[in-house]
Amino acid sequence: xxxxxxxxxxxxxxxxxxxxxxxxxxxxxxxxxxxxxxxxxxxxxxxxxxxxxxxxxxxxxxxxxxxxxxxxxxxxxxxxxxxxxxxxxxxxxxxxxxxxxxxxxxxxxxxxxxxxxxxxxxxxxxxxxxxxxxxxxxxxxxxxxxxxxxxxx
Length: 153
Description:
Elements: H1 3-13, H2 19-37, E1 52-54, H3 59-74, E2 79-84, H4 87-94, H5 97-101, H6 108-117, E3 118-120, E4 127-132, H7 138-152
Parallel strand pairs: 2-4
Antiparallel strand pairs: 1-3
InterPro entries: P-loop_NTPase
Organism: Rhizobium leguminosarum
Protein name: Shikimate kinase
């Protein structure tokens, strides 16, 4: 579940960053997580999120805690994969057409400001790995994640 699946509903109805926006996003997240709780615990749920501290809202930390709580409620381990890439590759990826289609930030200066004020973290994950995907295709990156998870289970 791409985090924008939830966030874009909020953006469609309210101004991003407002109290109304966060209330709506929390409601959508609650509905999605309630549906996930009905699924078999053995069925993996994959989230794509930025998990970072910093900024003014505290929402990223809150959202991560909600994911930790969901994993605990399902009785499942929480695997965290942090993907990194070189600054050059990141600058190229930020402006990709696909990001715009998905409603993601495409402004390099804004992205640089966000990176400067936030720190990635994955406290509370059962298992964690960092993968530099600068020179990896999406398929190869997915294969490495798959192989890593299988090496643990």
